[in-house]
Amino acid sequence: SAKYGNKAYELYYGPGGRHVIEFVIDPVNDTLSFGQAYTFSYNIPSVGSAWGITACMKDANTMLVGNSDEVAELQLNSSSGTFAYNYLFTVPPNWYISWGSDMVYRPSDNSIFVVLNGGGSGGGSKVHQYSYSGTLLDDVFISPNPNSNMTYPNMMFCNGGKIFIHDGSNGVYEVGTNPLSLLPSTISYPQPGNAGDAASSPECCDG
Length: 207
Prior knowledge:
Strand 5 (about 55-60) and strand 6 (about 60-65) form a beta hairpin. The chain has strands at about 1-5, 5-15, 15-25, 30-40, 55-60, 60-65, 70-75, 80-90, 95, 105, 110-120, 125-130, 135-145, 155-160, 160-165, 170-175, 180-185. It has about 210 residues and is mostly beta strands.
């Protein structure tokens, strides 16, 4: 899932190719309505096929996506109802963007934060911070980590200029930056235990 302003976005693979589905959020009436569908009717032109595992919005027309070992951007064209796929970078060996992953984009420094799993024989999960061109700027273990009891962190979102992470059952933690660290949460987030995703607008990541 991804969000920008009052719009939410979902990725869908079905008849006619790969699609981004846009929904309009009405917070007053607590409703969600169909906005627009964007279609890319050809095969994703990369081995990593960064599609469908993690997503966030960079701006109103750019969605960031990740899968396996690859991060890419989708350029949405509202006039034609299509999108273009642009490869960005590959994550380090033995780390993977999998079903227990998520990502957020921070506009102030043009960086991308991604939850990665694997790490070779040691296993575990990390948050990596990348420049937009793919340089690894910082990282921190989130599982195992003596400051948390998270086991499968799969939700990342921002609020009030801070980044938060959640695994659906063991509470919310803040991802501190400069350097990356895992901190007790400064907000209460009563997410249901079976929740599988979270999304926020990119400006929420800036203070």
